[in-house]
Amino acid sequence: MLDVFPMFSKLSDAARAALRGLGSRAFWAAELGLVHLVQERVGPDQFAYIAVARPKPKAAAVSLSELLLAEQEAA
Question: What is the superkingdom listed in this entry's lineage (predicted)?
């Protein structure tokens, strides 16, 4: 979380922008019910953020990879 803010992060501007994009994509997938977002403490003030794929409901017409490809092609 703190790594996206320049005053707290040691990451480059490009790395922070990529991290923000990845976080946005993870929340997008969670809002669609495609993944569970999990946080794991790996050390003092250090966390791992994990997106765990949810089982695809039998009624689901499209997979996460299909949605990502369609959105990328539209951009």
Answer: Bacteria
Q: CB of 38 within 8 A of CB of 52?
A: yes
CA distances from 18 to 3, 44, 55, 58 (A): 11, 24, 27, 33
Are 2 and 20 contacting, i.e. CB atoms less than 8 angstroms apart? no
Domain layout of the chain by residue ranges: 2-74
Region 11-30: mean pLDDT is 84
Q: Which amino acid, one-letter code, is at 69?
A: L
pTM of the entire predicted model: 0.59
